[in-house]
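Subject: ATP-dependent DNA ligase family profile domain-containing protein

B.,
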Amino acid sequence: MYLNKAASIFQAIEAIAATASKNEKEALVKQAGSLPLFMRIVRAAYDPFVNYGLALAPMKRDGLAPGSNTLDEEQFWNILDKLATRELSGTAARDAVQNAVDLLDEPSSALFRRIIAKDLRAGFTDGTVNRVFPGTFQEFPYMRCSLQAKSNMVKPGWWDKGAISQEKADGMFANVNRAGDTVSIHSRQGSPFPAGCMPELEAAMVASLAAETQTHGELVVYEEMEDMGVQNWSLLPREKGNGVLNSLLSGGALEPGQHVAYMAWDQIPLSAVKPKGKYETGYKARLIALLGQLKGAGSAGSAVLRVIPTKQVANQAEAFVHYRELLAKGKEGTVVKHPDAIWKDGTSKDQVKLKLEVDVELRITGFIPGTPGTKTEATFGSLMCSSECGALEVGVSGFTDALRQTIHNDRERFLQKVVTVRANSVMAPSGEQGIYSLFLPRLVEVREDKTVADDLQRIKDQFAAAIAA
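Prediction pasted inline below.
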């Protein structure tokens, strides 16, 4: 039986982490959840609306005597509150956290650092807690796509009415709630963008979107560029654009010449936005209503608020033609939707993601260290892999904890091994060294039967062949 003390709570969390069974984890969470301090720690770590402004808390400084303070003391919770409200930020925040870590004993120091990292390293999430203690955390409904093999697309009659094929956006998903005379913009996890951080877009949303609705779409970032004396907007790559958006989420500001745009694809009444909620109006009717609202500059909307590029297709063959057209333009893929598809919180079998995936052979050239304070700290974070010619390098993950441990225990044997890596595209060099990379690489298998990896040209050729197939 655990006590309502920090050291005992740490033991409870470690016990949950050591349990592989989902049911057993939930039973242990239920047992520990009777302790107020456990629930306080869980809320501090997993509340999606709370961010402490630091990616990681520092380790205890070397040479100091063991700390004697604990998280039973309110002074350390005051530090967390000040971090969350940004009363403490920058150097002052780092100094306050370092001092706290030095003063706390080992169990409380570990918990304090994990709270700041928003990861208790126990193998459960806010969803686990909500299953055991409903309503602990606010849930954010979201309709996911199916992959083709698991969708209704493969069933007879699905194509009788044709389908709607849309570009798969390459930015950050966001919900836009239009209530009264205001809008609020939230990430998929529910984190709110500060009001006024993208005034141009917010004004367009207030002027155009129907009241008492939630609109679904993707945020992307443009930068003003001058070409031959003409001022144009240039779309930032996903990694740079999402960096700007994450900065806005944390209280940052747009730089001069930057613009945030929203590519919308769906809209439902706010009354339907609830866990396991549904909205029975078919997708084609929802899309027509959304198009009617965004009549700004042309039929698709204004420069910063528009409907995602959309095409009506009659059958699967036309859908794949559209898919390959977008891949050839460097896009990520398409999403195909049945015209009668309802909206629901969960995975829709009538909303299907078409996405390019290609397997290539790379060579393991090194081990990228795990992030301090996470479960990979003791092994490694990802495998550094390269093409045979060395012109492409990428960190590869996507393996099980068991395989990670096996590789870590025998690093010399795995170093220089050829592995199969599955990725979605080749990424052009972005730095001065001119090294290519891969988008969303994940390990498929170690190739004991191969000694030569693919070179860059072969990798490019494989992606080109897949696009043209």
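DSSP finds 14 helices and 20 strands in the chain.

T.
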